[in-house]
Each structure stands twice: as structure tokens, then as C-alpha cells.
Amino acid sequence: MTDKATRIDLFSLRTAPMRAFHLTWMAFFVCFFAWFACAPLMPLIKREFGLSVDQVANINIAAVAVTILVRLVIGPMCDRYGPRKVYSGLLLLGALPVLGAALSTGYESFLWCRLAIGAIGASFVITQYHTSVMFAPNVVGTANATSAGWGNAGAGAAQALIPLLVAAAIAIGVGEASAWRVALVVPGIAMPVMAWFYWRYTQDCPQGNFADLRARGIEIDGGKKGGWASFRAACANYRVWMLFVTYAACFGVEVFIHNIAAIYYVDHFQLSLKAAGIAAGSFGLLALFARALGGWLSDKVAARRGLDIRSTLLFVLIAGEGIGLYWFAHAESVALAVVAMLIFGLFTHMACGATYALVPFIDRKALGGVAGVIGAGGNVGAVAAGFLMKGLGGVQQTLSMLGLLVALSALCALAVRFSPEHKAREAALRDRALGINNSIAN
Q1: Which H or E element spans position 98?
Q2: Residue among 20, 24, 21, 31 nearest 202 (CA)
Q3: Euclidean distance between CA atoms 298 and 355, whole angstroms
Q4: Whose CA is closest to 377, among 237, 257, 259, 249?
Q5: Residue from 412, 343, 352, 428 nearest 141 by CA
Q6: What is the pLDDT of residue 278?
Q7: Residues β-bridged to residue 205
Q8: Distance between CA 412 and CA 242 in Å, rounded?
Q9: Distances from the Cα of 59 to the Cαs of 113, 183, 280, 379, in angstroms?
């Protein structure tokens, strides 16, 4: 705790926490750009492969299904091997299915590549783990939310930029059937480049890398086996499952919107692929500030009113998201739909930030397990939304039902409460971190 950063110096790379902060959001941005690169291409891919509505739904489900399992595993892996090794490995391996999708020849091969690409979504857990071990309690919510928000913007960037890459490829003479394949090569190359930077310039925690610390006999939370005990501890904590539901309601909806927004605007409002990409991309680009705003607000209200107020704030944000989502489903014009999407998107991204502003306080000795299980909840929500769309048979009906379910799930946030002993312990850790760092500054 004594070496954790107590403030965020955005324009500094001199300290290990700030290098980790900037490289985690950059790696996260690249991963999410790659994860969602296929989404704005779906109208082209649907036409080329002759996909049915049911097949498109299967592809959307595949895009997020495997992430559930990988997020559950990758949190404990961070406890054991350290976030530096795990992130670098994920970036290298994740590039393979992205490039494979560009070479797919039909529904089956594309479906399998889309399934494997879903593993990249586990990058979120590593990002939140890395900033959680680098920053002190007074700013950890802001650090988590900002790094996640800026990284999450990769999804919005993919919605907006991938169609432009397709247009550029066509402009230089590449056929339409090949242009979308060329566009996918860009994230496929960016991932291994980012892996090198992450390996070269980050370390696991303020004191160094886990392997070196353990070799010197320094104990790391989670123990030598690193994580499976913390995973079991996380599963036994009811607060984890409450936040599992709230994260399903906010991040799950966010992923679902990323996957269906472009095709919804094309089919429902007859927009062009470029216009639909820009409209859908605006939702993702809210993450540039909205998720950070949720984490910052959580830190600020907690400084005045204690740990429980973080849960109350999350309740308000989830409820607002549900109401806005219902409005979006019933918007009758493009203009109203975009306004409604931006409003409910603001609540959605802020709720994601507020959720992970709570994560570091659930169980410090099971951080990897807690981050992994709650992160998996987001993808469970996205998969559930995909199956809901298959059952209801239409995007508009699905969005309307999701709005009601999200508003109801806000009650889970209110159930997250802490004992007086837990709150006293966290307050002591916060005061200790601030007191020691202030004395160093003086």
C-alpha cells in the first residue's frame, strides 16, 4: 500500500503505476478494437455468406460466449503469473483468430474465428487488475474507470473506423468481397506490436514483477499457487454475485449494443453502412469520458460518505440505464434514436465505471478472482441478450425487454453492503496510504 500511487499524473511516465496506467488502456483499446472489428462489417459479411437472422445471432453470441470462461480463468492467472506476462500472451495469441477471420470462407469458419476472438475480451480483467494493484484507495476507482473507459473506446473506434478502412480499400481498387478482409488485418497486426510494448515497459506491481518478488521471499496476495484459492473465495462472497448481475446489466448491454447497433440502424432506419457506423460508434466513444466519470464520482462520494454510498450510486446509474434503454427501443426516428442511445449510453458507461470502482474493496486477497467473476458477468449478460433476441425474433422487442430487466437488476446494487469492521479496515488503509505519501512529499 505504501508504494501505490495516490494521484493520477496523466502526463507522466516516470513511475511504474503511470506506465502501467497508460499501457493498460492502450492495450485494452487495441484488444477491443480487434474484438469488435467484425461488428460494423456484419452487413457486408451477411450478404457475402448469405447469412440468416438466426446465423447472425449465433455469431453475436459466439463473439462474447467464450469470454465468460476466459475471464473466469484469467483473473486467477494474474494472481499467479502477474498481469505483464498474461496481457502480453493474450495479445499475441489473440491476433491469430483475428487474422483467421479475414481468411474465412463461409459461415462455419467465420463462426469459429468469431468464437476464438471472444477470448480477447478478457483483456478487461487484466486492465482492472493491473490498475487495482498500482493505485491507492483514494483514486483506484478513478484509475480503474478511466483506463477501462479509454480502452473501451476501442469498440466505438472500430464501429467508426472499420467502415472507413473498407471504403479506403475499395478506393484503391480492392473488391468489396476482399475489402472487409483487408480491414481486419489492421487490428491483427496491431496486437503483437502492442504485446511488445507491454512486455518491455510494464511491471506487475509498484515493487516489481511477481516472479522476482516471490524469488526474494516476498509474499504476494493469493499465495504461491496464485489464484485458485482466491477464485473460490470470490465465489463464496455474495457481493461478488450481486455485482456479477449489475455488470451483466451494464457491460452486457454495452457489448450487445456494439454487436447489433450498426445492423439495427441499417435494417430499421435504412441508413448507409458509413452512417450506421458513425451512429453506432458514437455510443462506444462515450467510454472516453463516461466510464471515467462513473469511477471518479464513486471516489468522490465515498470520500465524503463512506464505502456504502458507492453501491447506492451504482443503483441510480443502473436504473437510469434501464429507463433510457426502453426509450431507445421505442424511438421512432433516427434523431430520437441517437439521442436516446447517447443518454442511456452515458448511464451504461458510468455504471460500468462505478461497478469496478467497487471491485478493489470486495476482497483484497482475492482480487484476481473477484475481478474475473464480475467481469464474466458482463459477458453472461451479453450472451443472455443474444439468446433473448433469438427467442423474441427482433431487435426492437429485445431492446424493450432489456430495458425493463436492467431497471429491475438495479436492486442488486443496493444489496451490496459492508460490515463496520470491513469499512473501518478500508478507511485505515486509505488513511495509511495518504498519510505515508503526504509525509514523503513533505
Answers
A1: helix 83-102
A2: 20
A3: 9
A4: 249
A5: 352
A6: 85
A7: 208
A8: 5
A9: 10, 19, 18, 14
Positions in the chain whose pLDDT score sits under 50 = 222-224, 442
Instruction: Count the neighbouring beta carbons within 10 Å of the beta carbon of residue 387.
Output: 12
pTM: 0.83
Query: Which of 70, 259, 274, 267 minimizes the C-alpha distance to 166?
Result: 274
> What grid cell was written down for 99?
487474422
Contacts of 50 by beta carbon, 8 Å cutoff, 6+ apart: none
Handedness of CA 81, 87, 90, 92 (dihedral sign): negative
- Residues whose CB falls within 8 Å of the CB of residue 310, separated by 6 or more in sequence, listed in order: 141, 298, 301, 302, 354, 357, 358, 361
Specify which residues 208 forms β-bridges with: 205
C-alpha cell at 22: 497508460
Q: Mind giving me the DSSP string for 271-301?
A: --HHHHHHHHHHHHHGGGTHHHHHHHHHHHH
Cα 40 → chain centroid? 18
**Strand blocks (E) in 243-363:** none
Burial zone of 209 (CB within 10 Å; 0-12 exposed, 13-18 middle, 19+ buried):
middle
Contact 23, 198 (CB under 8 A): yes
What domains are there in the chain, each with its CATH number?
Answer: 16-210+225-441 (1.20.1250.20)
C-alpha cell at 285: 466513444
Is 230 within 8 Å of 76 (Cβ atoms)? yes
C-alpha cell at position 276: 450506421
Contact call for residues 156 and 282 (beta carbons, < 8 A): yes
User: So what's the pLDDT on residue 224?
Assistant: 45
